[in-house]
Amino acid sequence: MHDVIIVGGGPAGLNAALILGRCRRDVLLCDAGTPRNAVTARTWGVFTRDGTPPLVLRAKAEADLARYHTVVRREVEVVAAQRREDGFAVTLSDGTEAEARKLILATGLHQALPDVEGFAAYWGHGVHSCPYCDGYENRDRPLVVYAHGAAAKGMALELTVWSRDVTLCTDAKTTAFSSRDRDQLERKNVTIVETAIRRLEGDGEQPHRIVFKDGGTRPCHAVFLMPMPCDPSRLITQLGCDLTQKGVVPTGAYETTNVSGLFVAGDASRRVQFAVVAAAEGAMAAFAANTELLRADIA
Q: Is 118 a domain residue?
C-alpha cells in the first residue's frame, strides 16, 4: 500500500509529489496526460518562470521528481476510486488497482464553453477564461467580455485594467443593469451589447470581430469568458465530496475535504485558478497528508 496516491499531473499534483518525495513518502502519481492548459501557449504569473510554455514547465517538474526514488509517476488514467476502512483504492485504465492511505485529487476541471461559433476554435489563443493570465498580452486592444447575470458588470469593469476598449456582450441572456450600473460602465468606456451573438470571426490565428445575429459587428482581439459551470472529475463525485454551485470542492485550509483522508488541490478546489496557486495548493495538501500520516504512525 502506498502512503499517498496523487491523481493528476498538473501544477498541483506535481508539486504535491515533490513535497511528499522530500518527506520520503511512498507516492504513486497517476496522470492521464490530457492537461486542461494544453491549448495555452504560455503560462504567465509564475515566479521565475513567467511565460514558460506549459509543457516545458511540466517536463521540468517531472525531471525534478526523478531524484526522489519513493515517487513513482505513471501515465495512466484513474477511472474509479473508493474509500476503504484503511484508506483508498483506485482502479486504473489498464485494469489494475492501487491502494493508498491518503488520496490527493489534482484532477483539474473540464472547461465548458458557450455554444457560440468560433469560441472553441479560438479557445486558448483568443478566447480566455482568466484576465490575470492573459489580459496583459491583449492589453490596449479591443476586448470582449462574454458575461451575463450578476457577474457581468464586475467582470467588464475588471477588464478595464487592461484596455479602454471593452465591449460587454450578454448574448441576449437576461441581465438586469440598473441606471447606476450603466453609468459606471459608461464612465469606464464599456459598451454594452445585449444582442445575441452569431459567431466569432478571425484569421485562424487571432479573433478579429464579433458578429451579432442582427448583422452588427464589434472589433475583437480577445474574448474573456465569465466563470462558466465546470464538470468535476467523476472521482470527486464517486468519493462523495461536497460541491459548490460552480462545481468545485469547498476545501479547508489545507485542501481537506468532507471525506477523511482525501484532499483536493488545484483548479478543482475553491480558490482562484492560477497555475502558481494550484502549485501552492498541492504543497499544502502534501503537508497535510504527511502530517496526518505522521500522527497515525505515532498514535
A: no
**Total count of domains within the chain:** 2
Half-sphere exposure of 75 (CA within 13 A, CB side): 4
Whether residue 12 contacts residue 109, with contact meaning beta carbons closer than 8 Å, is answered with: no
Q: Write down the residue that cell numbers 519513493 correspond to.
A: 70
- At 296, phi and psi to the nearest 5? -65, -35
27 within a domain of the structure (yes/no):
yes
- Residue 117 pairs in a beta bridge with 199
CATH number, domain with residue 145:
3.50.50.60
Span 287-297, average pLDDT: 96
Rg, C-alpha atoms of the chain: 21
Tens of pLDDT, residue by residue over 230-283, are: 677 889 989 999 888 777 788 888 899 999 999 999 877 766 778 899 999 999
Give me the DSSP letters along 166-233.
EEEE-TT------HHHHHHHHHTTEEEE-SPEEEEEESSSSEEEEEETTS-EEE-SEEEEPPPP-BPP
Do 9 and 91 fall into the same domain? yes
14 and 104 together in one domain: yes
